[in-house]
Specification:
The protein is α/β, with parallel strands linked by helices and 429 residues long. It has two domains: 6-62 and 325-428, Aspartate Aminotransferase, domain 1; 66-322, Aspartate Aminotransferase, domain 2 (3-Layer(aba) Sandwich), CATH 3.40.640.10. Helices cover 35% and strands 17% of the residues. The chain has 13 helices and 16 strands. The protein has helices at 6-13, 51-54, 63-73, 87-99, 113-130, 150-154, 183-193, 219-231, 284-288, 309-322, 325-345, 377-387, 409-424; strands at residues 30-34, 37-40, 45-48, 104-110, 137-141, 173-175, 199-204, 208-209, 215-216, 235-239, 263-266, 278-283, 351-357, 360-365, 390-391, 398-401. The strands form four sheets. It has a seven-stranded mixed beta sheet with strand order 4-12-11-10-7-5-6, sandwiched between helices. Strands 1-2-3-15 form a four-stranded mixed beta sheet. A three-stranded antiparallel beta sheet has the order 13-14-16, covered by helices on one side. The longest helix has 21 residues, at 325-345. It is globular and about 65 Å long.
């Protein structure tokens, strides 16, 4: 490694997220993106099979989104979103509400997925306080992940992501997700827990638990859970940060169910991977509880870059692309391809489980270390695919693909081919 190279300089000054610093290899210097590919400084190209942490919907350096950001940057780059507004934020809110469930009436802007969840939790807690019926308990699914701020960590599984902070997190009731075979026991636990009149909210990742290992479950038990929550005045919060904008095959994962959540959290793909932006939408009855002559009932929450015009412009441009018929036709194609891969691998002797939902494919591989985020197999699989021109980021022994929607048939076939090769040499990785 040359002393003055970007990776060498990087090692001296930066601290990378989710990275074991002592054993970390020199990071790859990515100099360009184009469509489904990323290019390193030597000109090598790699298929981005995980959409650069699930954010890139339309491919890298999408010219349409880039142009819209450029146009906005020449007009207005930032304005405080307290006493002021701007057209990009208003248009985006109107458009999002036109796609969201009809019970959603307001859009609150923030900066990322974690803060979108923080906003949702504070809305739910203060809602009960504002109507004079404060409640303290929150329900979440076991194995869940909702971000890395303190509120979002509190409503997640206690694990490697948040162990050092456990003594500082507020207590949450964790109930198993209704995965196959556990649907009835999950429903029974909800019945029992909701008998208490102190349950404030239930937060969930609809149908796919992302960082927990791409764990998937069916819509039917979730439908029953939300009905139970509504019967007990428990505010329901859907964390669609990863599952939104077509990832599960429909515009929202909650489109698979009839009973709609009261609050919805959005981020990641909202700008097509160009700019940080978070959104928390809410039902009318939530918003109404904050409209009062009593100023203490105001929602005192905000961010310096709330509704940043550049980010909103990027999101509007991304929506332009999402609203085109042919894009969701390609989402259907990716979904069908991954469903075919699932059927191909589901009985493989080295695979515990194989699953897919929309544009998300995952397989859980057998190892003596068991299923764990720290399983060394993840590092080995990452290196195996990288040598063959594919960038992935396994969750321990969970291999998954979550590509941008522009991925071609040839690129999908390359993912399948490399998976075949990996399984063929599995014992020698």
């Amino acid at each position: 490694m040359e002393n003055n190279s970007i990776p060498e300089r990087d090692r001296k000054v930066t601290w990378h997220p989710f990275t074991h610093q002592k054993e970390a290899a020199y990071p790859m210097n990515i100099v360009k993106g184009e469509g489904g590919y990323l290019f390193d400084e030597s000109g090598n190209k790699y298929i981005d099979a995980f959409s650069s942490w699930w954010v890139n919907l339309h491919g890298h350096a999408n010219s349409y989104i880039a142009e819209k950001i450029y146009e906005q940057a020449k007009t207005l780059e930032q304005v405080a979103f307290s006493d002021f507004t701007h057209s990009q934020a208003v248009i985006l809110a109107e458009r999002l509400l036109s796609h969201l469930p009809k019970n959603q009436t307001r859009i609150f802007y923030s900066d990322n997925g974690s803060t979108a969840v923080e906003v949702a939790l504070k809305m739910a807690i203060q809602y009960h306080s504002n109507i004079g019926k404060p409640k303290r308990k929150i329900i979440a699914f076991e194995n869940g992940y909702h971000g890395d701020t303190f509120g979002s960590m509190s409503v997640a599984e206690r694990n490697v992501f948040n162990n050092p902070f456990t003594p500082f997190l507020f207590e949450v009731i964790l109930i198993p997700a209704p995965i196959k075979g556990k649907e009835q026991s999950t429903l029974q636990e909800f019945h029992h827990t909701l008998k208490s009149d102190d349950v404030c909210a239930f937060i969930f990742e609809p149908l796919v638990q992302g960082a927990g290992g791409m764990v998937m479950y069916e819509p039917e038990p979730l439908e029953k859970i939300l009905q139970l929550c509504k019967a007990h005045q428990c505010v329901t919060i859907a964390d669609e940060v990863m599952t939104g904008f077509g990832r599960t095959g429909k515009f929202w994962a909650t489109n698979y169910i009839t009973t709609k959540p009261d609050i919805i959290c959005l981020s990641k793909g909202i700008t097509g991977g160009f700019m940080p932006l978070g959104v928390t939408s809410c039902a009318g009855f939530i918003y109404d509880a904050f409209v009062s002559d009593d100023k203490t009932k105001t929602f005192y929450h905000g961010h310096s870059y709330t509704a940043n015009p550049l980010a909103c412009a990027a999101a509007n441009a991304s929506l332009d692309l999402l609203e085109k018929y042919e894009l969701f036709e390609h989402v259907k194609y990716i979904s069908a391809f991954f469903e075919k891969m699932k059927k191909k691998y589901e009985n493989h002797p080295d695979i515990i489980d194989c699953r897919s939902k929309g544009t998300i494919f995952a397989m859980e591989l057998k190892t003596h270390e068991g299923t764990s985020y720290l399983n060394e197999l993840g590092k080995k699989m990452g290196a195996f695919f990288l040598k063959r021109g594919i960038i992935i980021r396994p969750l321990g022994n969970i291999l998954y693909f979550l590509p941008p929607y522009c991925i071609t048939q040839a690129q999908l076939e390359e993912l399948e081919k490399c998976t075949d090769e990996m399984l063929a040499s599995f014992n020698n990785l």
